Amino acid sequence: MASHGVRGRSGGRPTLEEVAARAGVGRGTVSRVINGSPRVSEATRAAVEAAVAELGYVPNTAARALAANRTDAIALVVPEPETRFFTEPYFSDMLRGVGAALSDTEMQLLLIFAGSDRERQRLAQYLAAHRVDGVLLVSVHADDPLPDMLSQLEIPAVISGPRSADETLTSVDSDNYGGARQAVEHLIGRGRRTIAHITGRLDVYGAQRRVDGYRDALREAGHEVDELLIEPGDFSEGGGRRAMEALLERRPGLDAVFAASDVTAAGARQVLREAGRRIPDDVALVGYDDSAIARHMEPPLTSVRQPIEEMGRAMTDLLLREVADRRPSATRELERRQMVLATELVERASS
Amino acid sequence: MASHGVRGRSGGRPTLEEVAARAGVGRGTVSRVINGSPRVSEATRAAVEAAVAELGYVPNTAARALAANRTDAIALVVPEPETRFFTEPYFSDMLRGVGAALSDTEMQLLLIFAGSDRERQRLAQYLAAHRVDGVLLVSVHADDPLPDMLSQLEIPAVISGPRSADETLTSVDSDNYGGARQAVEHLIGRGRRTIAHITGRLDVYGAQRRVDGYRDALREAGHEVDELLIEPGDFSEGGGRRAMEALLERRPGLDAVFAASDVTAAGARQVLREAGRRIPDDVALVGYDDSAIARHMEPPLTSVRQPIEEMGRAMTDLLLREVADRRPSATRELERRQMVLATELVERASS
DNA sequence: AGGTACTGTGGGAGCGCTCCCACAAGTGAT
DNA sequence: ATCACTTGTGGGAGCGCTCCCACAGTACCT
Fold first, then answer.
1. Three-class secondary structure of residue B229 per DSSP
2. Residues in chain A with pLDDT values less than 70
3. What residues in B contact A11, CB-CB < 8 Å?
4. ∠ at Cα A208 (A207, A210), nearest 5°?
5. CA–CA dist A95, A91 (Å, integer)
6. Partners of residue A130 in chain B, C-beta under 8 Å
7. Among the partner residues A66, A82, A96, nearest to B96 by beta-carbon distance
8. What is the third-level CATH fold of B73-173+310-341?
9. Domain boundaries for CATH 1.10.260.40 within chain A
10. Start-end ranges of CATH 3.40.50.2300 in chain B?
């Protein structure tokens, strides 16, 4: 059955040519059938498919990649250390969405961590070698060189949060502005009058948009915006603590806090407790992300949910379209694509 | 600078041939330099390296894969739904070890989930297409067809827990037998006399070995093994509850429980509490895995730690060696490799 | 002087595909 | 009957490498 201990070569994997011979057609025709070209007669297609089945033919990806100049793979680049990837549900939700969008595709997903400098260097090599057809970029900081590198190399890419209002890359984002409005309107609706906001890192575009939403929601409800109720944070717990301390000092009469992340809210909560404020009786608290923290907090935290899984799906769909546009068939569409998905307020006991 | 809107082709990525021309040598010589062959003179090597640097040459992986019949990639196959992958620290630890072993290699790691039938089918296609040089297999059930498929396809593979005492695949395991002994000897040392054992799924080889370790530890300490103190579980929390209930009924006088996993121990703990037994005063409890659960349990759980990260590293090293052995150079080593790494008892308040 | 061995090098052949040109056969308008 | 398409098909060329054979050059024995 097996060839007597010969080197490895020709282990017997059938090639296109062999399938063609078997089906009594030419190589080109088999290729057309494999790739689902419509310009093949029904009879021929059936014959080829039979031959493929009989021989157990599986296309050689390397040969295809070389000839067609593509890899049939995209990368999900996570510019964070692995630890965060595993601890934050953000990534696993995202991954699920990406996986779903890819599931009836031939595309392969590579997961690439680029947390350390070393890893980033590897990544650069990787991209320079064009080992993927496209890149999915999540949670990129404003000054990250990665996006530019990608456009330089002309590798299609989709980013999960635009870096600014005029992001050049195709992007998918949740409605940070609207989400913030939802949160603040909710607080107003509950009769809160003095609503503070602990922001995220303001070099992140999404954090800016949340501030905008906060402001506009107050204004439209006829409230005046008190700048001293806005305190910058950095998405972290410590940042939340510091900001809350500052706010309490400046505006001890506040009766609600909208924090730009659940983690920030957790920090704020500690300080509020220490100051003897009851939640939600004295101060209502709303977070952002609807993470596990929100559910497990005491009391459970009202939070703005982002549709992360859908974002993953949307990003992937957009990327696949861009990759397809690059192929030699190519009726280029090329309009700039920015997609924004709606958020949802999850009400819990903290507000 | 850029070519006027020509199709994509020849975007200008330099080829081996161009490097050769630039360095004034032949194609073969450049290939030798790139691949670190020793049969190149110092002067030539320097000239080639200069040319490579000047042109920014990056090898085309597809061409290399086609010509050399290899992919420079290995897969970590996780036969579990993604959810578990993210929730259980086991996988993230494993991944870190694998990453470390790969970090100064050209090898690329693919993460493949094979939880659903659909995913498994994709995986089968994937392997049939020989898209990876080798496979790392973690947490495989006894009746899984995957290992056999791999040997059929002659794809090097390393498995994380042997399926039986005479596993044919190269395997890496932690010392389940020794770990169980550590746990039981510890309990004996603390003066416990009636030590029960809730096993894991007994179709898992490692679970059997833990039972063996439990038995031998008792015997060697001069205790008699009471078979009614051994109750089968299945690594789950519910299994732990059920087993504990059975044990409490049969042997109400027990003063210690060794559970085959932390999750099992958590289930047992609930039942013990409900029965009014204090931990550790009335009943000492020891788990296995040293997972997050163990640290956060009330009281914190003594547990057997497996060196998972090191296991990942060891598996990868072994796999890389096997892959190398398959290459046309090949001074075949081929001894069967089974590796067992030591465990460590982490003592906490529960015992 | 011839033989033998090694070292370093060039380049042909070929890996298994895709792309595309060429062309046969059919279809309908002129 | 001629021309102009369309549809389906075969197969050459070429993607960028690795492998390996051939061979020049040098070194060291007989």
1. helix
2. 1-11, 87, 328-335
3. 154
4. 65
5. 6
6. 13
7. A82
8. Rossmann fold (3.40.50)
9. 16-59
10. 73-173+310-341, 176-305
Higher pLDDT, B104 or B182: B182
Q: Mean pLDDT throughout B41-68?
A: 95
Chain B residue with the nearest C-alpha to that of A330? B7
Locate B350 and state its tokens.
């529960």
B53 contact partners, CB below 8 Å, separation of at least 6:
none
Residues B197-241 have pLDDT tens digits of: 999 999 889 999 999 999 999 999 999 999 999 999 999 899 999
**What positions of strand C are covered by protein, i.e. any atom < 7 Å from a CB?**
7-12, 14-21
Instruction: With CB atoms and an 8 Å threshold, state whether A66 touches B69.
Output: no
Given a contact cutoff of 8 angstroms between Cβ atoms, the answer to whether A158 and A322 are in contact is yes
In strand D, the nucleotides that come within 7 Å of a protein beta carbon are: 7-12, 14-21
Q: Which residues pair with B320 in a beta bridge?
A: none
- Does 3.40.50.720 match the CATH number of domain B176-305? no
Q: Which pLDDT score, from 0 to 100, does residue B198 have? A: 98
Give the pLDDT confidence score for residue B333 in this predicted structure: 59
Mutate to test the interface with B, among A10, A57, A58 (most CBs of B within 10 A): A58
Residues from chain B that touch A13, judged by Cβ atoms under 8 A, are: 130
Q: Rounded to whole angstroms, how far apart are CA atoms A252 and A283?
A: 11
Give the minimum alpha-carbon distance from B63 to chain A in angstroms, rounded to a whole number.
6
Mutate one of A6, A86, A120, A122 to test the B interface: name it (highest B CB count within 10 A). Answer: A86
Which chain A residue's Cα is nearest to B59? A129
CB-CB neighbors (< 8 A) of B117 in chain A: none
Q: What fold characterizes domain B16-59? A: 434 Repressor (Amino-terminal Domain) (1.10.260)
| H-only helix segments in chain A | 16-23, 27-34, 42-55, 61-68, 82-87, 89-102, 117-128, 146-152, 176-189, 205-220, 237-250, 262-274, 292-296, 308-326
Query: Do the beta carbons of residue B205 and residue B162 sit within 8 Å?
Result: yes
Predicted pLDDT at B4: 30
| Residues whose CB is less than 8 angstroms from the CB of residue A273 and which lie 6 or more positions away in sequence, other chains included | A279
Task: For CATH 3.40.50.2300, list the domain ranges present in chain A.
Answer: 73-174+310-340, 176-305
CATH superfamily, domain at A73-174+310-340: Response regulator (3.40.50.2300)
pLDDT at A34: 95
The pLDDT value given to residue B293 = 84
Residue of A nearest to B116 (CA): A103
